[in-house]
Amino acid sequence: MNELLLIILAYLIGSIPTSVWVSQYFFDIDIRDYGSGNAGATNTYRVLGPKWGTLVMVTDMVKGIVAVKLALLLPEYADTEVNLQNLQTGLGLAAVIGHIFPIWADFRGGKGVATLFGLVLGISPWTALSCVGVFLLVLYTTRFVSLSSILASIAFPIFILVIFNVDNPIYRIFAIAVALMVLLSHQKNISRLLKGNESKVPILKHRDRRRQRRKDAASGRD
Helical H runs in 80-168? Predict the structure, then answer.
């Protein structure tokens, strides 16, 4: 019974529609009516700017961390690392489901990547930081948030199964499921990437302008 109550609480925490509330309170709009129509950090970044996008991303990550830490309210699980990890995974997944289908926002939420990252950060910080490294490297190279999220999610089970070799079979299955879930939730993004019309986030503009000037200068010399 206690576990069920915590799972419900984790879902309610995950259901907090950060981007929707921010857009409605500060801008008098619904973020889901603009951009990609997604209630997530990336769309907030594009529509409302980097300050608000970062705020939404961090808050959505914290939802996953808080949900995982709810497991500490049941001290009987602390005796066995595997049991604690399994409970934390269940609570984190409840928060992710809440983010995707938020009860506070007509069950129309985001893709859950930031909350999912908070889940992993709360359970296995080194794995999460390794995935962040993959994400930032791809983002710096391409400026595609979607591609960065996809490749970071694929790297997650590789870190769990191969590099860190986590023994918990449920967590190993969870890692594989995460990669599949992110791939499924980004089908439209994958289609746009293949067609060459996926939107890039407006970062590293100075780098791009320098590259363009070099290309223009080289063309002028030719």
Answer: 81-100, 113-123, 125-142, 145-158
Token digits for 34?
Answer: 């603009």
Distance CA 77, CA 73 (A): 9
Q: What whole-number distance in Å separates Cα of residue 44 and Cα of residue 36? A: 10
75 CB neighbour count, 10 Å cutoff: 9
For the beta carbon of residue 150, count every other beta carbon within 10 angstroms: 22
Question: Using CA atoms, how far apart are residues 138 and 75, in angstroms rounded to an integer?
Answer: 40
Token couple for 116: 């999912």
CB 116 within 8 A of CB 67: no
Non-local CB neighbours of 57 within 8 Å, separated by 6+ positions: 41, 44, 45, 114
Domain spans of the chain? 2-208
pTM, two decimal places? 0.84
Q: 30 near 102, Cβ under 8 Å?
A: no
Q: What digits encode the pLDDT tens for the residues 65-109?
A: 999 999 999 988 888 889 999 999 999 999 999 999 999 999 999
DSSP3 helix / strand / coil % (the chain, rounded to 5) = 80, 0, 20
For residues 167 and 131, what is the distance between their CA atoms, to the nearest angstrom? 19
